[in-house]
What we know:
Layout: E1 20-25, E2 29-33, H1 49-55, E3 58-59, E4 74-79, H2 89-95, E5 105-107, E6 119-122, H3 125-128, E7 132-133
Amino acid sequence: xxGINPYISKVHLELPKQNYDLTFLPMKQRVxxxxxxxKTDFDGLPGSILNSALKAxxxxxxxxxxxxxxSTCHVIVRxxxxxxNEATEDEEDMLDxxxxxxPQSRLACQCIPNGSQGIIVEIPEWNRNLVSExx
Length: 135
Ligand code: FES
């Protein structure tokens, strides 16, 4: 169940306006995110990369439950970062704690693509063995 962290500034929530493909590397698993079918009963902000991954059965690590209070959901957005919401200062602060930080790094629980283009995210190597797939 998605939660809200009362200690961080509110994220501007703009849900995807159209369907888009979300691809996870290195396993090259692609899921289609349907803009009219965003669920709030998975962790992470509605429409976030974490939320969409969990809905698709990709168990991306998210120790704090998707409320911007850890950095275990760190992903690197290899394509489509410009179609995602801006990272807040709180997200940047948490990202600073993540190993392997890159300029395109985001917290999957806070990063919401708007659907205007396909997104490719890479799960950092240190976190890969924690990822499992339900199917
Ligand atoms: S799951 Fe903890 S910050 Fe995203």
